[in-house]
Specification:
heterodimer, A: 250 residues, alpha/beta, Rossmann fold, 6-stranded mixed beta sheet, 4-stranded antiparallel beta sheet, 9 helices, globular, B: 373 residues, mainly alpha, abc type-2 transporter like fold, 4-stranded mixed beta sheet, 14 helices, 5% strand
């Protein structure tokens, strides 16, 4: 197991963001946190990458505790926050080099890494362009490249395709699946069901709780066909789960 | 460690040079301020207009009025003033001083050897009021001396001694000499603190801080990498101010320039660290800016001895003045520029300034949050 999350709870003031969450991610897996806004996806990811402290429960990455072993976790993961957070007044290459140096990538190895990242992101022609002048899709590819510069074991991507055009979204997911074949473990969050379908395993979250987890096919199979939809899609599963949850709460 | 600091420094320099508008403001603001302060704010007063109500109309009373007029400080109103219009005169600020010479000016003098003259002074600005009153007193003294000289044969009291003050270091009492060092202290504190407090809160606001925190970087590396580039910018600023002060106002430089440079460097470091401390508390650039403006301008102008002497403050404020970096830097810069003193005289101030810097930066590192909470 690369990631283990056990009984994780976290609230902001009196408002609970995540309650009693459990899930594990195996090495080499493409794992999805699926849910609408406010489901607790970002809170979970931020805690896992050591930016927030949990109120209760334990979170570990390769056996390192997210509260105690912050530095070792920080050096082995690549984290891409939801908001574009690179330097808009630095060029594509300056951004890449900056993160390379921040993560102590050996000087002699940096050119080869840049070369490789340019190849898969196709950003080479824009190396000297300021990051702020890139299109939405290119920005996301640059952000992904920056998180990959130090060859992380684990990628944590918080809604990487929100607000990106469909073609770029498709391209981005192609890159993710290619990365997985190279052995990188990926934890990704998304509100889109078509993207959830592309994950190895997912956990469906709603208002801070895990409603179901498993492979997309398992989740679909667990739902009986109804009158309205003989062959339920993942979206149908998702909606019925949420409806059930809200009914329970009332 | 060194490589990460260098990476952050290089990035910070790129920010500085890409944002040429801000750079321009940083370079032009000190020149603008020094011209504004240097020419507009002056404590030297000339051409104070005075009116006269002369009820005596004797040669002696006219001599008194002339004694006022021949001094460059006072200028006669140029017409007679009636008693009833004195208030209107002050209201319209046509005159700041009215001299009232009573009709028995001469008879009093002949009878008892002394005579009374009334001075009406507009002290709505108490500073000006005091100045006018002091100057007027001097004029009257000179007038007395002259009159007494003529009377000495009568066996009246001769004047036994007179005070002849000699004003050192700034013999013309030129207030720009006094202001320019203060301006250096003020501008450096303001700009340096603004630079660092904004440099860090900007990264919090745009989310880039979240990105670099999730790296093996240490708090001290971020802070050192952020401060060093701005030290250079601060020194550039200091030299712009000093050169323009020299060219525009002929402010003297009597002491060692390298020593001033070194101590200015320490002062800039203190100011930058102060900005860092603010950025540890402030969440947005706007809040950081307001906090910095409030926390630097007011204390630096009011409490550092920039304008008001610390020795005449109430005890509590005097205590407060001692923790304001500008207080110490002002003593240093005035000492070096105007008096030509060196480290032998200024070591306590230099030591305190250094101590303040170390304290501030250690605090900034300690308070720097490596998490988002």
């Amino acid at each position: 197991m690369l990631i283990e999350v056990r009984n994780f709870s976290r609230s902001y003031g009196t408002r609970p963001a995540v309650s009693d969450l459990d899930f594990t991610v195996r090495r080499g897996e493409l794992f999805g946190l699926i849910g609408p806004d406010g489901a607790g996806k970002t809170t979970t990811m931020r805690t896992l990458v050591t930016l927030l402290r949990p109120d209760a429960g334990t979170l570990t990455v390769a056996g390192n505790d997210a509260v105690r072993d912050t530095r070792s976790i920080r050096s082995m993961i690549g984290y891409m926050p939801q908001r574009f957070s690179l330097y808009p007044d630095l060029s594509v290459e300056q951004n890449l080099r900056f993160f390379g140096e921040l993560f102590s990538v050996p000087k002699t190895e940096l050119p080869a890494r840049l070369e490789r990242l340019y190849r898969f992101s196709r950003l080479q022609p824009f190396a000297r362009r300021l990051a702020g002048r890139l299109s939405g899709g290119m920005k996301q590819k640059l952000a992904l490249s920056c998180t990959l510069i130090h060859n992380p074991v684990l990628l944590v991507l918080d809604e990487p395709t929100t607000g990106v055009d469909p073609v770029s979204r498709h391209e981005f997911w192609d890159i993710l699946r290619e990365l997985r074949t190279q052995g990188v473990t990926i934890l990704v969050s998304t509100p889109y069901m078509d993207e959830a379908r592309l994950c190895d395993r997912i956990v469906i979250m709603h208002e801070g709780r895990a409603l179901a987890q498993g492979t997309p096919d398992e989740l679909i199979a667990s739902r009986p066909a109804t009158l309205t939809s003989l062959a339920p899609s993942l979206e149908d599963v998702f909606i019925s789960l949420i409806e059930e949850n809200t009914r329970h709460a009332n | 460690m060194k490589r990460r600091v260098l990476a952050i420094m290089r990035k910070e320099f790129t920010h500085i040079f890409r944002d040429w508008r801000t750079l321009l403001i940083i370079i032009l603001m000190p020149i603008m301020m020094i011209v504004l302060y240097g020419y507009a704010i002056t404590l030297d007063m000339r051409n104070i207009v005075f009116g006269v109500i002369d009820d005596a109309r004797t040669p002696e009373s006219r001599a008194l009025v002339e004694a006022f007029a021949e001094n460059g400080f006072f200028v006669p109103l140029g017409r007679d003033v009636r008693r009833a219009e004195v208030e209107k005169l002050f209201m319209r600020r046509e005159a700041l001083l009215v001299i009232v010479i009573p009709s028995d000016f001469n008879t009093q003098f002949e009878r008892s050897g002394r005579s009374r003259v009334q001075l009406l002074i507009d002290a709505s600005d108490s500073n000006i009021g005091t100045f006018v009153s002091n100057y007027a007193e001097q004029v009257l003294q000179q007038y007395n001396l002259r009159m007494n000289d003529g009377l000495r044969t009568d066996g009246r009291l001769p004047v036994l001694f007179e005070i002849a003050p000699r004003i050192l270091y700034n013999p013309d009492m030129n207030s720009t000499f006094f202001f320019v060092p203060g301006l250096v202290a003020l501008i450096l504190m303001l700009i340096s603190a603004l630079l660092t407090s904004i440099a860090i809160t900007r990264e919090k606001e745009t989310g880039t801080m979240e990105q670099i925190l999730v790296s093996p970087v240490h708090a001290r590396e971020i802070i050192i990498g952020k401060v060093l580039p701005y030290i250079l910018l601060g020194l550039l600023n200091a030299s712009i101010i000093l050169v323009s002060a020299r060219l525009l106002f002929d402010v003297p430089m009597r002491g060692s320039l390298p020593l001033l440079g070194l101590l200015t460097l320490i002062y800039v470091f203190v100011a930058l660290s102060f900005g860092l401390l603010i950025s540890a508390v402030a969440r947005t650039q706007l809040i950081a800016m307001f906090m910095t403006l409030m926390a630097t301008i007011l204390p630096t102008i009011m409490l550092s001895g920039f304008i008001f002497p610390i020795d005449s403050m109430p005890t509590v404020l005097r205590w407060l003045a001692h923790v304001i970096p500008a207080t110490w830097f002002l003593e240093i810069i005035r000492g070096i520029m105007l008096k030509g003193v060196g480290l032998r005289e200024l070591w306590p101030q230099s030591l305190i300034l250094t101590g303040l810097g170390v304290l501030l930066v250690a605090n900034a590192i300690r308070r720097f949050r490596m998490r988002l909470e």
